[in-house]
Design goal:
The chain is of the alpha/beta class. The protein is built from 6 helices and 4 strands. Strands 2-1-3-4 form a 4-stranded parallel β-sheet, sandwiched between helices. The longest helix has 23 residues, at about 140-160. The structure holds 4-nitrophenyl phosphate.
């Protein structure tokens, strides 16, 4: 079903849906909730691969997020082009590889017009990608949180305008 009501629907995308996009989902939900706007948003995340389907977010990502009071509750699921392109207004990807994958699955111009890069909403940081932290150390998870806090603020401000 296409979204025709006043709800803004946002889907965050990364590769595995266990590190970056579930973190974006949790941070954005918290910012929306802090402003009392829960009933105006539907917020979800998904991955370009289904390898981790049904799993909670990576334990390292959850630990780093919880130090900043973000609780990651979502379960991994793969992106479904036949449902998600219709259901979401904003489909926001973490890196260029995600964007390429999404473009290759787009069915038409309307689908393509929904694609965005997370870092395009940064206000204080100058990154063009949210780097995959999966094979790295603690600094990578902290950097993901830094970039996502900044870009989620920018995203909410933009949608509110
Ligand atoms: P994410 O990180 O895309 O931020 O969830 C990854 C998680 C798992 C894999 C790659 C990236 N993986 O290849 O399993």
């Amino acid at each position: 079903m296409e979204n025709h009501n006043d709800t803004t629907t946002v889907l965050f995308i990364c590769l595995g849906n266990i590190c970056r996009s579930p973190t974006a989902e949790a941070i954005f939900k918290k910012y929306v909730s802090d402003e009392g706007l829960d009933d105006q948003f539907e917020i979800d995340s998904a991955g370009m691969i289904g390898n981790h389907e049904g799993s909670r977010a990576d334990g390292r990502m959850r630990k780093h997020a919880e130090k900043r009071d973000f609780v990651l509750e979502s379960l991994s699921r793969p992106f479904d082009k036949d449902v998600d392109f219709d259901r979401f207004d904003y489909i926001i990807a973490m890196d260029g590889s995600n964007i390429s994958d999404l473009k290759s699955r787009a069915r038409n111009e309307a689908d393509l017009s929904k694609l965005h890069r997370m870092t395009d909403y940064c206000v204080g940081f100058d990154y063009d990608t949210v780097p995959d932290p999966y094979y790295g150390g603690a600094e990578g998870f902290e950097l993901v949180l830094d970039i996502l806090e900044d870009s989620c603020k920018g995203l909410l401000d933009k949608i509110k305008k």
